[in-house]
Amino acid sequence: MGKSKKKFPAGTWTANSQKCGKQFSHRRFRRKEKCLIQKGKYESLPYRQYELTNQWDLGGDGKAFYEFKTNEDWYSKAMRK
After folding, report:
1. What pTM was estimated for this model as a whole?
2. Which of 9, 12, 39, 57 is a Cys-bridge partner for 66, taking CB atoms 3.0 to 4.6 Å apart?
């Protein structure tokens, strides 16, 4: 597959992993739960961590369109499979 190319110039903007974002999300969820339990507000406890943190902000996700720029070096590298 050394000479194979993508047909459409789009791809993902990725981080190495989503580990930091997930740690932040869990930390925020546990802190919110702890504070609400201490105050006795059991009816307003969150059910899921994504009620407090947007899952699209965790890093490592999202797609982008590269545009058609065939004469630039980064474009040829991005279009490789």
Report:
1. 0.55
2. 9
Buried b (16+ CB within 10 A) or exposed e, 41-66: eeeeeeeebeeebeeeebbeeeeeee
CB 71 within 8 A of CB 26: no
What value does the mean pLDDT of the chain take? 78
Report pLDDT for 29: 92
Half-sphere exposure of 34 (CA within 13 A, CB side): 6
Q: Can you list the positions of beta strands (E) in 1-81?
A: 10-12, 63-65
- Of how many residues is the chain composed? 81
